[in-house]
Amino acid sequence: MLEVNQVSKLYENERGVRNIDFSMSRGEIVGFLGPNGAGKTTTMRMITGYLNPTKGTIRVDGLSMADHPRKARRKIGYLPETPPLYPEMTVSSYLKFVANLRDVPVREQKQRIGEVIEKLGLQGREKQVIRGLSKGYKQRLGLAQAIVHKPDLLIMDEPTSGLDPKQIIEIRQLIRDLGENHTVLLSTHILPEVNAICNRVLIINQGRIVLDEHPEHIAGSMGESFEVRLEVKGPKEDVKRELLELPGVGSVKELERESAGMEPETALLRVVSKDRADIREAVFYRMAERGYPILEMKKESLSLEDIFLKLTTDEKEVAESGLQDEQEQEQKLEHQQPEVEDRA
After folding, report:
1. N or C: which end of the chain has fewer CB within 10 A?
2. Options 3.90.180.10, 1.10.8.50, 3.40.50.300, 1.10.3720.10; CATH of 2-213
3. According to the UniProt entry, which residue ranges have a biased composition of type Basic and acidic residues (predicted)?
């Protein structure tokens, strides 16, 4: 559905994105993560055709954005962080206006608008002026304008930004539902949102893709050791000695007790394997042989937050040059906008 091939956008200060290369299949919901200034907004603007790449190609359902920009854009729905709403218009008049812009045939507009109003839970608000809508309903309307022309690819930038917890849950469910019929690229700073919605994660840092993986496989792809949090009833020194004698165990570290109510003869340990091998079965049998009951054994793994920080924190580069805020890039993009519109 989407092919981004060796795409770069370079600026005078050498910031931008470099050789971005990824693709998306139909039905995928992909989380697009990165710190401020990493190149997320620049990449999404290039995908949606609002910005020309310095080099590389972008194809949407086989259509080149450079050669067939208008046809390619028809296949894309875009929800920027601030939805492009006109506060003086009503919900229905705004959706009709967008339908005209998106070349939805006049004979189909009434049905399409009714469908998106129902899907986004906007029933009863068709005649309401947009300025009177709550933040949550404005976000719903922003999603409605993005899908009214039935795009194949849906691109969303911070879709739950500024919403309360109830609204966040509702919008997340809407995105899941939309993912059944659309390919979705979702940019967000809320990392738990990626775990809740996405079936694939892209992380960009300093203009380059540094991770492309399914959420459940991320920890393994990072080459981390296999670690187990272990609570065993028995003398801790004896337990540690027995564990260190196992061939697959690399180290055993005592953890601080989380509760004063823990029995004195209970060992709370982190056991690290050699060569990322799964040591749980060996640990279980050794403790059983020695008569030390295991009260808890839990595999420890890096969270998405840990992985994000590990991939996007480079103290040396940050100290030398600092991260550039994407807002500075957006100011430069304003001067290039007329050229992009002329090409369309």
Report:
1. C
2. 3.40.50.300
3. 329-344
